Amino acid sequence: MPIKILVADDEAAIARVVAMKLRNAGLDVTVAMDGDEAYRCAMAERPSLLITDLQMPGMSGIELCARLAAELDGGVPTILLTAKGFEIDELAVRGLPILRIMTKPFSPRELLVNVKGELAETACL
Amino acid sequence: MIELRRAAVIVLMFLGVGVGLHLLLDPLREAGEPTLVKAVSLAAGLSLAVLGLLGGYLVARLPKERLDAVADRLESLVHKRTVGLVIGESQADAIGRLGHAVNRYLTFVKDEIEQSHLTAKEQQIQMKVLEAEKRHVEAVIHAISDGVIVTDAFGDLVLSNAAAGQIFEFQFEPSVRKPVEEFISDQPFLKLLAEMRETGLFVPHRTVEWAIGEGDQRRAFHVTLNTVVEGKKRDRISSVVAVLHDMTREKEIARMKSDFVSNVSHELKTPLASIKAYVEMLLDGEATDHDTAQECLRTIAAETDRLHRLIQSILNLSRLESGLIPVNKTDLALTEVLREVVDVISPQAAKKRVALKADLAPVFFRVHGDRDMLYQALLNVVSNAVKYTPDDGEVRISTYLAEGAVVVDVADSGVGIPEDEVDRIFEKFYRARGAKQTAPGTGLGLPLVKHVVEAVHGGRVELETKVDQGSTFRLYLPAVR
Lengths: 125, 481
Description:
The complex is a heterodimer of chains A (125) and B (481).
Chain A: E1 4-8, H1 12-24, E2 28-32, H2 35-45, E3 49-53, H3 61-71, E4 78-82, H4 90-93, E5 98-103, H5 108-121
Parallel strand pairs in A: 1-2, 1-3, 3-4, 4-5
Chain B: H1 2-24, H2 26-30, H3 34-80, H4 94-143, E1 147-152, E2 157-160, H5 162-168, H6 172-175, H7 187-199, E3 205-212, E4 219-230, E5 236-246, H8 248-283, H9 290-321, E6 329-333, H10 334-351, E7 355-359, E8 366-370, H11 371-387, E9 394-402, E10 405-412, H12 433-438, H13 445-456, E11 460-466, E12 470-478
Helix pairs in contact in B: 1-3, 8-9, 9-13, 10-11, 11-13
């Protein structure tokens, strides 16, 4: 199964730089500009990994992850990329397939290492 | 009757003495001195008779009449309901001494009565003063905005004010001297009072956080409890005093401040995240061609500017809301301010071929306002209208009088705002979905407009909007009459 990464962020510059880094590493990346668009993409493409911002217009990153977990078998493994790292409610993320939370500002280098690690864990690589 | 018999005896005695003298003088008479004898005996007899009669009269008269006079005087004093002297003249006899003693006693009694009257009057005055002070203290307690509840050692209500009545929904008059459980149902609060009654001798002061109500009705209080002790050894609790300070608003403000700091932090981190990420990409050689490198550098530059604008806007709005920027109000023509705004925005509109139409009334409607603040607010609204209107669209500005206010309508044919986001559009940092995708912004422009129009100038801001059709922002500013 081809590896697809879905990147969801309403900040266009962030979405672009993440996509650029992952594509440069040879990964297939789809970009969505908000939670609703990301949901539609995920339901259509069933990505191997979701990298999403937390606060987005409409559906938030956690809501997106929860909805995919409910509607897709096992959901989509997710890396949360957010400026609100320490304020995330633990109860809200319990039971969801959130592999890692990275706080902004972030290092694209470090993100790529984490993505490769998670994909290896889930035996996609 | 006794006095008459006594008088008769005395008269008879004197008569008897007189007769005796007369008889004794008989020999002299016989001795041939009849004239002398006759004269002496006559004089003696008459004198004795007169003396006898006079003595009898005095003895008969003085005790009874004097005593009658005393009795009459006493009756008169009783009738007049007064205390006075009983016997005017002073004599050395028994009645005189008795009268003198009675007078002294009555004088003493009068003094005591007068003193009692004075004392009673003073006590009455003191009672009135105490009553007035009590009413004053009660009025002061009722005027206190914090809730005050005072219970006695048995948990009965002694005193409470209107604020406490409003918190627990009871009235003081029908509840005084009744157990507080009869009209206060909040168990945690009752437990606090009970604990103070039990432990107040050892822990006379306590401060606790307490809340009442649920959801939107929830109110948070800072409760201060004190015990009042009495007794020589101060070993008895007489009262428990509870003062309830409503912290709901303060907690809300603290929460808003915390949220603001959190939001500011989040907003500042976002452009910083872009700057950091693109710098790293360039350093790592990820920009594989010139165009990509240029795009990275342009993004860094744009995000740096964005960060700067954000910091300026945050500082500006914070200073405005905290009152650090002085407000200088004068009567000014709003049309003139709008004309300036239109002049400034026109180049921006022209770039997008957005028609900027100003339908400003020729009559100068005047408002009492701060020119700089109103200029900034109007600039934000008009600038937004142009920013969020696609190319070849239209922005129309008009002014008119309505409801005693100068009304400014700014209507655009832009992206509009979704209905579920209308209530949030004036929140700090909030940007609607369409706005984010159309143009950059800080999310602080509209909060500034709302603050300037409503908080500073007493006006109001309204919004009509429809997605993909446009929005109309309507600003009401009180007109100068």
